[in-house]
Amino acid sequence: MTGEKGDLGGGADGKHRHRVLLIEDDPPIRERLAGALTAHGDCIVAEAANLAEARTLLAQQPPDLIVADLGLPDGLAIDFLAEARERQPEIEILVISVLGDETTILAAIAAGASGYILKDALPEDIHSTALEVLSGGSPISPSIARFIVRRARGESVTDTPVPNPNAPSLTAREFDILWGIAKGLTYNEIADRLGLSRHTVPSHIKAIYRKLQVETRGEAVYEAIQYGLIKL
């Protein structure tokens, strides 16, 4: 449990501060998000790296907003979000995840998420996005918004990737990097976008290549598409 950033009280200026529970297992990304959320002095951020820590923090003091990644070391956060919303119906939820498949999106919305942002479309100002959710808005990545509209119209949504049951199991971080590869980003660009060390990206890519049984970026993208892991 990484603790809290910001003053828990109202502050000498009497300014209201929103309580935010940030759940993200990747330390650099968590630090970047927490810094952005607290930069204006109107948010107090309690940080959790996994579901166990998140449950402890939730029990201590219910937040106004949960900002959560879904793929965590101790499980998918969907059930936790539903539990939090049932316990405190007024809690707002913003999902920030690499997972963009139909099942996960609909499950997150059903669990109470008001906003859903894909990590490869992370807005420049996550603070404004958080305030939008707290104000009753529903910020959603454009690709997800199109999917929801098409589903509401009863149109086919078969362009949503449906993983082959025989597909290799990739971690959330490996999915992040695989998307970067598919978009043609360099190793340094992937590292900068994900808040990773530029020295760790090659090791993640080697793991992806090993799981997909490939040797080049092009082969990795091709196999990922064939397995239904991504769709360009």
In words, what does this structure look like?
Keywords: DNA-binding, Phosphoprotein, Transcription, Transcription regulation. With about 230 residues, the protein is α/β, with parallel strands linked by helices. The chain folds into two domains: about 5-150, Rossmann fold; about 170-225, Winged helix-like DNA-binding domain superfamily/Winged helix DNA-binding domain (Arc Repressor Mutant, subunit A). It has helices at about 25-40, 50-60, 80-85, 100-110, 125-135, 140-150, 170-180, 185-195, 200-210, 215-225, and strands at about 5, 20-25, 45-50, 65-70, 70, 75, 90-95, 115-120. Strands 1-3-2-4-7-8 form a six-stranded mixed beta sheet, sandwiched between helices. A two-stranded antiparallel ribbon has the order 5-6. Helix 1 links the parallel strand 2 and strand 3. The protein is globular and about 55 Å long. The termini are far apart.
